[in-house]
Hints:
By secondary structure, this protein is an alpha/beta fold. 25% of the residues lie in helices and 19% in strands.
Amino acid sequence: MLVRRQVLAMLGTTALATLAPDALFAAASIKPDETSALLVIDVQNCFLPGGSLAVKEGEQVVPVINRISKAFANVVLTQDWHTPGHVSFASVHSGKKPFETVDLPYGKQVLWPDHCVQGTDGAALSKDLSIPHAELIIRKGFHKDVDSYSAFLEADGKTSTGLAGYLRGRKIKRLFVAGLATDFCVAWTALDGRKAGFEVYVVEDACRGIDTQGSLAKAWADMAKAGVKRIQSADIAVSA
Ligand code: VGL
Ligand code: ZN
């Protein structure tokens, strides 16, 4: 009797593709359920073209995020939300320029151009983001002397934003992370999500990175080590 493997070997690739396209290409194999949440990180004007900390191709994440958001009953948006004169701004450290670093009480801090100041247009979510069913907007980085890339934990490593408690309260177990920037707020959120015990997927084509001093490669390496799953938006089943 022929075993399955021999049958497969006998069929050409074309014939196989006709018979079982889904099994072959594993298209859209991930189906978000009621225990899944999409975290949309910092899709704000400051990080988009024309913004003060514009991420290259940042605008390209918007249609991708809008599309996949339809597959999620639970969506959380975040906003980087700094005070004027925030400690992460190069402008408050004399002699320092953006993308240089400084040592702060909680560790090394990359310095940025002024960005996402509370209540400004730059801090507003992109007007092209279309996720009316999003249920929570979490703001972070609002303590003047502490940055917060992560949506879970401020950079002092101890001040919680409350997000983990919210997600547990909503019985969420799986997080899908998208947005800006891959190597900072997306990666730190994904890593802290793992530390908080969630299953975490980062949707690569729904993110773009800043990539300063090797930060993008390091972020992917750290995430892989922590068990964060790297997927593409096409892996997520979205009904038409
Ligand atoms: C971010 C740098 C500074 C981000 C926020 O959203 O990734 N990056 N503040
Ligand atoms: Zn910031």
